[in-house]
Amino acid sequence: MIKGALFDLDGVIADTSVYHFQAWRDLVAKHFNATLPDDLEAKTKGVSRGDSLRVILDYLGETVDQVTFEALADEKNTAYIKLLDDLRPANILPGITDFIANLKAQNIKLALASASLNGPYILEKLALSDAFDAVANPAEVTSGKPAPDIFIAAAQALNLEPQDCIGVEDAIAGVTAINASGAFSVAVGDASDLSHAKLHFPSTAELNLATIQKAFEVAR
Ligand code: BG6
Ligand code: MG
To answer: Domains in the chain, ordered, with CATH?
Structure first.
């Protein structure tokens, strides 16, 4: 029986992942006079702000000192938060509101397992803070996704074992993290990248709790 649902945020609950990459693109255009290719986005998805910046600097073949690194990460975050200005409940991705209601109707507890330090702020803007029983703090875990830490912390915050939970993700690193935690991975989005998920839906609109419950019972 599924007792907990551990949610990624960006790209699962709201399509804020496009804003993340937009903010990185603007930063890179300004400071390095360069353009980031579309396919780099997948590598920055799910991983922490610092790890995203490392992926980007690596792509650019640039090295910067620690002070510059922090300044670039801060500037990206300021730009990102500005892009979130108009975020509202209408930005919740299709199917998510119903999916959350269905989980609650089954007494399944909800926790946020996002790498984003902006998680609580975004939930507030989406009017979803009360929907979550717990929010795992990415600043308090040792290793970011693809390490399992944030999913383990999210399960712990619900007083549950990861094995009794599902994790919902749109990122390669996120699915790897769920699998490593022992939770049952449910992926949404781009199929070719997410084949390591135990169950996959083409988009959030297709998320189906009955299908997930059946697959979960077979796997357990
Ligand atoms: C993840 C995003 O949810 O959060 C990543 O997929 C992002 O792209 C990471 O780097 C950290 O987010 P933030 O808001 O703390 O910079
Ligand atoms: Mg995501």
So the answer is: 4-15+88-219 (3.40.50.1000), 17-86 (1.10.150.240)
